[in-house]
Specification:
This protein has about 210 residues and is of the alpha/beta class. It is about 50% helix and about 15% strand. It has two domains: about 130 residues, 3-Layer(aba) Sandwich (Rossmann fold), CATH 3.40.50.2300; about 55 residues, Winged helix-like DNA-binding domain superfamily/Winged helix DNA-binding domain (Arc Repressor Mutant, subunit A, Orthogonal Bundle). A six-stranded parallel sheet has the order 2-1-3-4-5-6, sandwiched between helices. It is elongated and about 60 Å long.
Length: about 210
Amino acid sequence: MERTGTAGTGPGEVRLLLADDEHLIRGALAALLALEDDLRVVAEAATGPEALAMARAHRPDVAVLDLQMPGADGVAVATSLRAELPDCRIMIVTSHGRPGHLKRALEAGVRGFVPKTVSAQRLAEIIRAVHGGSRYVDPELAADAISAGDSPLSVREAELLELAEGGAPVAEIAQRAALTPGTVRNYLSSAVAKLNAENRHAAARIAREQGWL
């Protein structure tokens, strides 16, 4: 959604897009950032597709994205924005800072990765730093990512686990992935073994919790 009164941003102002599906959180954040003289929220969004549409329409300097949004998560939005609006700096603000999420975000070109527990004043400082070309990753999230290591899953195993996450039968997964049912079973069995899970549904849950899906 477009912010009212944003047509005349002044020189030196940082133009922001805020995207979060929780209206109360997004509104409170917008109100707090509006208290900063050099920051201007020019657009807000509640879903991934809406965030992309608002970014294309308003071309913000910095996009502050929630990690988990309907339609497309923050990392997927960041990937698209990096390709379409390379001058837009991207930040992820999340309450689900799993190690795998951080790695995916950095690979997508995200310049800031912070928890939602950060204060508004500190967030404003990080926004300015990211806009200026710096990168900021919350120290605790970075430490967790280092200690957790990389995902043990192959790209195909992760893809099939994600398809299995909603309880789809093997035949349906095979059709969607253009593989034979036997091949799908082999990949899923490998993923289950790597994650020391009871079954593919438990494996998908573990992988999701770690941010590997």
